[in-house]
Design goal:
The complex is a heterodimer of chains A (301) and B (308). Chain A is elongated and about 75 Å long. Chain A has helices at 11-35, 37-54, 56-59, 91-127, 129-143, 149-158, 162-188, 192-199, 204-240, 252-261, 267-295. Chain A is an all-alpha fold. Helix content of chain A is 73%, strand content 0%. The longest helix of chain A is centred in the middle third of the chain and has 37 residues, at 91-127. Chain B is 79% helix and 0% strand. Chain B has 13 helices and no strands. Chain B has helices at residues 2-25, 34-39, 47-56, 63-75, 89-124, 129-143, 146-160, 171-202, 205-213, 217-254, 260-270, 273-301, 303-306. Chains A and B meet through α5, α6, α9, α10 and α11 of A and α1, α6, α7, α8 and α10 of B.
Chain lengths: 301, 308
Amino acid sequence: MSATEMPITTEATTILTSRVRASSLWRDAVRRLVRNRGALGGLAILAILALMAIAAPLIAPYDPNAIAPVSNLKGPSAAHLFGTDQFGRDILSRIIFGARLSFEVGFIAVGLAMVCGIVLGLVAGYFGHTVDAVITIVIDIMLAFPGILLALAIIAILGPSLYNLMIAVGISGIPAYTRLVRGTTLAAKQQAYVEAARVSGARDAAIMFRHILPNVLSPVIVLATLGIGSAILVGASLSFLGLGAKPPTPEWGAMLSAGRNYLSIAWWITLFPGLAIMVTVLSINMVGDGLRDALDPRLKR
Amino acid sequence: MGTYLRGRLLRAIPVVLGVSTLVFFMIHLLPGDPAEEIASRSPGMTQETVQKIRVQLGLDKPLSTQYLQFLSRELHGNLGRSIFTNQPVTKMIRDQVGSTLQLTFAGIFIAILIGVTLGIVAAVRHNTWLDTASMSVALLGVSMPSFWLGLLLILLFAVKLHWVPVIGGEGIRGLILPAFTLGFGASAIIARLVRSSMLDVLRQEYIMSAKAKGLATSTVILRHGLKNALIPVVTIIGLQFGTLLGGAVVIETVFARQGIGRMAIDAVLAKDFPVIQGTVLFAALVYVTVNLAVDLLYSVLDPRIRYN
């Protein structure tokens, strides 16, 4: 029984049909994902990093903020696997605790961007006309700020802090989700199930969130996954510039800022936090790429 | 093409107006009283200082007057004066922008050079080790923080090998490391895109017919394939210009270079709002212009969109 032959009776039938179509898509996607070794590898690394972040107080060999001037700027050794920084703090411990902050930045920023972006995109795509035009112009204005300048401007207003950094990075991410959801909503609006729902008297909000949203969700998930990596990078950059976490917070980007001052005499302060950032973002990107290939195999190369 | 150009320009105007408005409101979005917030940055704040700042920034006038004044000044190229150095912001930007643009364009050049080459190679040698290797490098490129790469490159080439000076350096020697660092991330993105775009194009029937005609493979790839494959790449390069302009902010700090990036960061830390506003506005205007140019170029390369 194809969608066009489906008797348009109740809203329940509409929901059932669109949901059933979607869930078998998910099963296929999961199967494709599991076969992608890169994505699995990334997932494994992420799991390890996540465990590390959660269990930080248990596995870190030292207190990340414990100053020990007598052992400052010591290279990697048995006692300090990644060496110590200019205050004698153990870098490995700081990296382990820093993982928490990076994940926080990633999830909160993307969460903010995703929620706002989805709502704006659905509203713009569904209602069209003036609402769409207004939202599109606002998004264009936000996109007119190159690179991290929008986040920079927001931090200029709110003041430098890790919390404001998350908000700033989050807000800078809204345009991407809005555009994506708006595009897919515009396409979904043409589908039969939307017409069916409307005819059977469903309210606009119900149509948007219960019918259209599940079907535009898969590219959003890909964007969000890759977005977490991107948010971590941007957050680290802003902290590196001194606009985010304040000392002595063991944020990876802020640690690299200190590394810059001691570059020639203590290369380990620079190498290891940056490596941590790269490994984290790399594994996220591998998972994200895998998700994208799994959810839309036509794009696979 | 005239209609397309007019349409794009028309869309750009409200965006520019919106950006100016947003930038204008930056001061007024500060939690608390703007003049007090700004004055709190310098030691020994008195009511006098606060009032002085208030008058200097015109915050004592009604909002609408301030807004119109801001817009009219902007149209005349007056972006106010720095609170701390009292220099006109426009002059500050003019002094520093050359260095930043130099870095940005060098970065784009390197990004295109490396990215397009890598992408073509990977597409043409599809599914060989060359393909996997270059895409792996590209994946690393988008995953690593640019400032980390920059620091490592300084460590290797300046500190250890002494090939380039650590800081400063004239001409190419001073530019190559920052430009490469800046361009590397973008080159990774470009490489991936060129590869998938080329693969798309190479699959097309007209490529097969060109080969069947007996044309040399290189002619087929370069003349028939590349031109069409590059169309989406042109748009991405425009977007990357923005990323690079923003990335220049970070790279300038890493390599201790002069530029509007460092100017902006110092201003943010000092809450020197006229400078922040002026720099952000300038950067946004440059970006909008570049994207407009890219869109026009895109319409020239791909006649299909001219008639949409």
